[in-house]
Design goal:
Shape: globular
Structural class: alpha+beta
Number of strands: 9
Largest sheet: 9 strands, mixed
Distance between the termini: 104 Å
Number of domains: 1
Radius of gyration: 26 Å
Number of helices: 7
Length: 253
């Protein structure tokens, strides 16, 4: 093979190789842009869902105060150290081998309710409430032991921590001894009515990923709920404001 022919073929090979590299780079850039766009869209969707859940939880807290008779008693609210609200659980979510409900929890600090953390409730059922289309769940943590259980990796209701269906009425006069000594009291809410509900067998877990999304950094539920130094993000302000309205209302009674 002559030298000019070899040189020509070498030149063609380099040209083709360069084109292939250019194509590969173009594909890589395009894939990177698409993945970045998808990630941004997913982040935006997650943020919107978290904000909506906070707003729904705030609405449930306000509803717990406005219900005329079937409401969470004032004395229960006064004694509660933390409250978890799991709004908008859809029909069938917990009926057979239940899946989960996603909600938020806030605890009292020195003078006010503090920044919230996300929680997940798994494997729960509410028996007679099965027929409803959608339900809100409220768990009140009544003593330090209940709070400590909440801050564990997970807590099985009725096993790791005692739980009872909460009493109703303005003052909760019908509370039984079991309700008075339970570490947690639980309620369901639908169509403007609150009902004490037994959630024994449910499992409450911290949702670390949702907390990281909300606060923009890796932060534990214990840091958020107990030390009082974590600033409430904008998305969570409606919920904290609703809880503090409740506290102010009770202080005036």
């Amino acid at each position: 093979m002559t030298t000019p022919l070899i040189a020509a073929r070498w030149s063609n090979w380099k040209h083709n190789a360069t084109n292939e590299k250019t194509k590969m780079r173009a594909v890589f850039v395009m894939m990177t842009l698409l993945m970045g766009g998808a990630s941004a869209s997913a982040s935006a969707a997650t943020a919107a869902a978290e904000t909506a859940r906070m707003n729904e939880a705030a609405w449930v807290v306000d509803a717990s105060r406005s219900a005329p008779d079937n409401r969470i008693p004032d004395e229960i609210w006064r004694k509660a150290q933390c409250v978890a609200v799991i709004p908008g659980v859809k029909k069938g979510a917990f009926i057979v081998g239940g899946e989960y409900g996603s909600g938020v929890v806030s605890c009292r600090t020195a003078h006010r309710w503090g920044a919230p953390a996300f929680v997940t409730l798994k494997k729960a059922s509410w028996g007679a409430q099965i027929g409803v289309e959608s339900i809100d769940l409220v768990l009140l943590f009544m003593n330090q032991n209940g709070v400590d259980r909440l801050l564990a990796d997970h807590v099985t209701l009725g096993t790791d921590a005692s739980i009872a269906a909460g009493p109703l009425g303005r003052n909760g006069g019908a509370a039984t001894d079991a309700r008075l000594t339970a570490e947690m009291l639980s309620y369901s809410h639908t169509k403007g009515v609150f009902v004490g509900v037994d959630l024994a067998g449910g499992v409450v877990l911290a949702n670390d990923r949702a907390d990281e999304d909300l606060y923009g950094r890796n932060v534990t539920a214990r840091e958020i709920l107990l030390n009082g130094h974590v600033k409430t993000p904008a998305a969570a302000r409606p919920l904290v404001a609703a809880l503090n309205r409740t506290a102010a209302d009770l202080a005036g009674r």
